[in-house]
Specification:
globular, 2 helices, mainly alpha, Helix Hairpins
Length: about 70
């Protein structure tokens, strides 16, 4: 199924929001959103990427296995 530009924009937005939230939480120790909100956005991203696997990018938060020690 071909993804619309709205879906592509939403995926980009979700990835950016989650990456910013992760940086704020893990690196800066200054959370910018509640954990429940992060989890909700993450689940939305997972669902969209499952529906449109051709739009999964290597830098997506869903593709992160672990962080550098």
């Amino acid at each position: 199924m071909a993804a619309s530009s709205d879906i592509q924009q939403r995926l980009t937005q979700l990835r950016q929001q989650l990456q910013q939230a992760g940086m704020a939480y893990y690196v800066l120790d200054a959370p910018i959103m509640e954990d429940a909100v992060y989890d909700q956005l993450y689940r939305e991203l997972q669902a969209l990427e499952a529906q449109y696997p051709e739009l999964v990018t290597p830098d997506s938060p869903t593709q992160r296995v672990g962080d550098r020690p």
